Amino acid sequence: MPVITPFRRSQQADADEEADAPGSSGTRGTPRPAPFRALGTRLAHWRAWRTRRPRTALAVRRVMTMFSAILVLGALLLPNSLVALEPSRFARIPGEAVVATVLLLCLPRVPRLVAAALFGAGLGALTVLNLLDMGFTEYLGRGFNLVLDWGLLDDAQSYVADSMGGAAATWAAVGAAALALLLLVLMALAAIRLGELLAAHRERAARGALMAATVWMTCAALGVQTFGVPIATTSASGAAEAQAHRVVDTLRDEAAFAQEAKADRFGATPGAQLVPDLRGKDVIFTFIESYGRSAIEDPVMAPGVGRTLDASTEALAEAGFHARSGWLTSATYGGSSWLGHSTFLSGLWVDDQQRYRTVTAGDRLTLTKAFEKTGDWDTVGVMPGVQKAWPEAKWYGLDKVYDAFDVGYEGPKFSWSTMPDQYALEAFQRLEHGRERDRPLMAEVVLTSSHQPWAPIPRMVGWDEVGDGSVYDGIDAAGVKAPDIITDSARSKEEYGKSIQYSVTSLTQWLERYGTDDTVLVFLGDHQPLARVSGDRASRDVPVSIVAKDPKVLDAIDDWNWTEGLEPAKDAPVWRMSSFRDRFLTAYGSTPHPTGAGD
């Protein structure tokens, strides 16, 4: 059977193809609709141009073939993390290419076209997932989850809109969708082109595939490496397998976690037996956005943050307050703050969206709800980052929630943050903490000024000058703009450190100014900042502090061995964030009454 190359065609073949082309009016078919006739006309023009300029046409075909090979091989060798994105990763032999070559050579034309298209489209989809893995690893310290993470893409668009503007967010979303679609189409077309080239040169392709298979197996057996990377690889199939395992593990975890959430050491504890040693105290749990261990230990950020913590410790001591500090390992990294909040308050390890949905749909006793259950505290939340309905308030046991629109703020947004922390705290004082009341207050406060991209950052103003927030208009206009630092790691570190200094200063000055003998402040970071700031191998640890005037409050946690002051020592205890709830409830006199999975 003669071999037909893609570069030599008879005039009769061209004529036959033209006659069969959509829209042709040759004797082989009946007249076609106008769109098909237009397509036939364009094909005829292409063939005519190819006939007039055969060398140019040959060069174009060769360039397209080379581009197809680069595209397919690049996708097969593409890693799923930015750290691994090095030239050495592309100097390898992908086993999947050898197998695909053999398969395509064995198939007749129509099945070959279908198989090549499916292979290419699948490779395009895997490339999209690898790119998503890169982004998620960079920002959240983990890969993309096919089951759970699609909703986070909407959050990412909202973040870009708040940081860079609505137009930028729209274009980014359109561009990302177009890129994903383009990858699927181009990869399918590239695979089809290569499959047809293999079929046109079947004998040479078969010999080449045999040689490649021999080299691959030899390198795999001997562990041959180049630039410290194995030459023989199956990274693409490994990445696909990892995605599949991630999906299966997620589905299994959902059922297991639902049972785990039902087992609660304090689930059946009567209200009268919860936190009796804090009766009469105003207890305030405060999360500082992205306040991680890197802020205290990174050589770029540590000097400024350390000075702030030392100065704040001294100022609070002069006001009669003392502090103890330690470390907690957060369930999240780089973002998804709600996972850290729910982990800390529920006593469960909530490290993905499915777990969050599961736990918030149940009746798990949160640390904040424990105070509501006693009936002895008013419970409120101050959530300046919340800009839409937030049904989780009931699960957290909050009688009243102040979101971004409830605190009377008339000033500018500071990138993602809807208002400066100092304003949020002053509003909390005005609306709740400073009011006369019949019983003490338990509050959950989330401070957002240290949220990425850390530009512009507010600055402290006189507490009597805060007003409705209009005083921040000039501060916002004079600040660093997000586009100026968002891709600059060094500047991001500097501005991140400044934002932590601002948030800590706002909180400790508020306590110094408004705290009483019965105020107990528990504050912590919800997670580390993204890897561009915290580092590729940073831990997930965050600082946590308890501050009070009453010495009995700190005496109750003496056996925790925490560090005196607001800055935890490097060797201070490190606990999983999920362990804090039970330790806190136990330290302040709560009596366990467990519920189990069968209750």
TrEMBL record:
Residues 1-36 are annotated as: Disordered. The keyword Transmembrane helix applies. InterPro entries: Alkaline_phosphatase_core_sf. It comes from Streptomyces lienomycini. This is CDP-alcohol phosphatidyltransferase. The chain crosses the membrane at residues 59-78, 90-107, 114-132, 168-192, 204-224. Keywords: Membrane, Transmembrane, Transmembrane helix. The keyword Transmembrane applies.
